[in-house]
UniProtKB/TrEMBL annotation:
Residues 237-583 form the PhoD-like phosphatase metallophosphatase domain. SUPFAM superfamilies: Metallo-dependent phosphatases (SSF56300). This is Alkaline phosphatase-like protein. CDD domains: MPP_PhoD. It comes from Schizothecium vesticola. It comes from the Eukaryota. Residues 107-224 form the Phospholipase D N-terminal domain. It holds the Pfam family PhoD. PANTHER family: ALKALINE PHOSPHATASE, PHOSPHATASE, PUTATIVE (AFU_ORTHOLOGUE AFUA_6G08710)-RELATED. InterPro entries: Metallo-depent_PP-like, PhoD-like_MPP, PhoD-like_sf, PhoD_N, Phospholipid_Metab_Enz.
Length: 655
């Protein structure tokens, strides 16, 4: 049995250990370094030796192809998995590789973060749907990602090999990109590869196959992004947030997948929830999650919902996190239920610190989501941007975990009220904030028609005085508005989730710049903040939710439509002339069903910087629109059959 190795050892001692074990000191290069490229090069001489030492056809290059072995940060390599060590373990005498028939693609396929010439492909291939027991080695207060224990090595000496291939959907099926990748329990048997050499704005199919077998994954479908200079007619986005598994079924995902009216899925966060909720879709594991094993298991559970699997299989996702991917009301140093104090560490955190928990959550997120590792200087960076032709610049923010100043945590709300306007407070940290303003300027500078900003929390102030939104960081909000107004940057569309209700508002600097609520003149953009896929919103009956919406719209100058009863999502379509959005309601998430209720449609004309009037054509299905009427028709589409029917449900959630 290999001995336990020293903590946080670098690459060089590992390779030395490999040489010693194989009696090949003469092969050891004198100047091994830790960079990824160098690792590949320096390991090449070992490949012939490996062929003699083991029938296992793994090699370090194919481990490197699986991005999940890498650190979430390219500049923090120690947060990654030590590939030479995994490789060495695979050479263990007596190891019996898995037969293909012992393996399964446990959680479908997914793709994401489209570039003009590449896209991320994801799957998981494993002997079991469960996250490997070996993960218990990172429970408690042991070294993060240190798997070098006897129990761990016993658990999984054998890398699993999968080939993947990509072909153009409209083609004869000829492979245009392919590769081989290995996975092990170190990364919870996930596989994440970058398919390169693709054409812009093109639909591709892809599939994984267990090496040397006919065992295949489902066929996935994905799409590259346009090139930055491409003149597109239209881009369509399906926008989601807040999918709480025990609360209800992810019908919104399935409806969007079946209708198939989008190029890309945007998920603004709360893709998982960290709590311990019971019921017929009770959370697994049955506890509030803190450890890496627990976050992985939670991700695995969410990725069993058939509608999530369908949307993941058929669409590229661009995802970012909100608080619940880590913990409720998170900020850079804690959350409502885990404060950065010894007392909280002991009583609330099961002796797991705020930072350690965040790292566990981040690693599981990177393993289980088809997200790129941004070129970054720390492992928390998911803020990034996508140039979708010269039509849209999509700017994805992290307004939650990256570097957010303290937020309301339940026990400190009076304090946050006192400091909410301090100039030093930032929702995103100065580094991200400067990047954000630069992105806005550069987007305007290259004459992209629209700037679409994916925030988690609501920007416009539509929700009122909440402090766990941009409203708790007024200086950051004002700096953003000042930048947009001073630089004369228009056609700004903010997206938000987090609130579990629908809010559509003009983005205006009320009190600083003239703004007319009736015409929209003076605004600098529009915010579309969507309801939740399944998380709790405003309780019924619908009539009381509608009257609450009217009160809110009447009391808030920028707010033009509010609706709190329905779960759902919205579709956004961008052309040169206008943005249109269609909000859809799931009339119940207490069962898995294909019912979808159109709630309201909105238009933003290019150059107008506010919602077109009359708002929503003066007619909405639910909630309240400024100057409009609300008519609850319950005329609902079955996205499975294509049939329309007047239908209603008494119960929204799994009780
Ligand atoms: Fe949420």
């Amino acid at each position: 049995m290999p001995s336990v190795l020293p903590r946080r050892q670098g690459i060089k001692p590992t390779i030395e250990a490999l040489c010693q074990r194989l009696g090949s000191q003469q092969l050891l290069h004198s100047n091994l370094t830790a960079s990824t490229k160098d690792k590949n090069m320096k390991l090449l001489p070992f490949l012939g030796l490996v062929g003699l030492a083991s029938s296992l056809a793994s090699n370090p290059i194919s481990f490197e192809n699986n991005l999940n072995y890498q650190s979430p940060s390219r500049r923090h390599e120690n947060l990654g998995i030590n590939i030479p060590l995994v490789f060495r373990r695979s050479l263990k005498r007596g190891a019996v590789p898995y037969k293909p028939s012992e393996l399964q693609f446990t959680h479908g396929v997914a793709s994401g973060d489209p570039y003009p010439d590449s896209v991320i492909l994801w799957t998981r291939v494993a002997p079991s749907a469960a996250s490997d027991k070996s993960n218990v080695t990172v429970e408690g207060t042991v070294d993060l990602y240190n798997h070098e224990t006897e129990q761990y090595i016993k658990a999984d000496a054998n890398p699993i090999c999968a080939d993947w291939k990509v072909w153009e959907a409209k083609s004869d099926g000829s492979t245009v990109a392919k590769g081989t990748a290995y996975t092990t329990s170190d990364i919870d048997f996930t596989i994440k590869v970058e398919a390169k050499g693709l054409k812009p704005f093109t639909v591709y199919n892809y599939q994984f196959t267990i090496c040397n077998s006919n065992f295949t994954s489902p066929v996935g479908r994905t799409k590259t992004s346009p090139s930055p200079a491409d003149n597109l007619d239209v881009i369509q986005l399906a926008v989601f947030s807040c999918s709480n598994y025990p609360n209800g079924y992810f019908n919104a995902y399935g409806n969007a997948a079946r209708k198939d009216n989008h190029d890309y899925v945007i998920h603004l966060g709360d893709y998982i929830y960290e709590g311990n909720q019971g019921g017929k879709r009770a959370h697994a594991p049955a506890k509030t999650i803190f450890t890496l094993y627990e976050y992985r298991t939670r991700h695995g559970q969410y990725r069993t919902d058939p509608d999530l699997l369908l949307l993941a299989q058929n669409s590229p996702w661009i995802a970012t996190w909100d608080d619940h991917e880590v913990s409720n009301n998170g900020y850079r140093d804690g959350s409502s239920a885990l404060n950065n104090t010894e007392a909280s560490f002991r009583a609330d955190g099961r002796m797991i610190s705020v930072d350690q928990r965040k790292m566990n959550a981040v690693r599981a997120y990177f393993e289980w989501m088809p997200i790129r590792q941004v070129d970054l200087d720390d492992n928390l960076r998911v803020w990034r941007s996508f140039k979708l032709g010269n039509l849209v610049d999509l700017i994805i923010l992290d307004t939650r975990n990256y570097d957010r100043s303290i937020t309301s945590l339940g026990w400190n709300d009076a304090y946050i009220e006192l400091i909410r306007n301090e100039a030093s407070r930032s929702l995103m940290g100065s580094r991200q904030e400067n990047w954000f303003y630069r992105q806005l300027s550069e987007s305007a500078g290259r004459n992209a028609t629209w700037r679409i900003i994916g925030s988690q929390v609501i920007f416009s102030g539509a929700e009122g005085a909440g402090t766990d939104t941009w409203g708790g960081y007024l200086a950051n909000r004002n700096r953003t508005l000042k930048h947009l107004y001073d630089e004369n940057i228009g056609n700004n569309i903010f997206l938000a989730g987090d609130s579990h209700q629908n809010w559509v508002a003009d983005v205006a600097w009320v009190g600083k710049r003239n703004y007319s609520s009736s015409t929209g003149v003076g605004a600098i953009g529009v915010e579309f903040a969507g309801t939740a896929v399944s998380s709790n919103g405003r309780a019924g009956p619908i009539s009381s939710a509608n009257s609450a919406a009217k009160t809110r719209v009447d009391q808030n100058a920028v707010l033009q439509w509010q609706e709190g009863y329905y779960r759902g999502y919205f579709l956004l379509s961008a052309t040169r002339e206008k943005i249109t959005t269609q909000f859809f309601g799931s009339p119940t998430v207490s069962t898995r069903n294909a019912w979808e209720l159109p709630l309201a449609n909105f238009t933003v004309l290019s150059g107008q910087n506010s919602l077109a009037r009359p708002v929503a054509g003066a007619k909405v299905e639910a909630g309240f629109a400024n100057g409009g009427t609300t008519t609850g028709t319950n005329l609902t589409l079955n996205t499975q059959t294509g049939k329309w029917q007047v239908i209603g449900f008494d119960n929204m959630y799994i009780s």
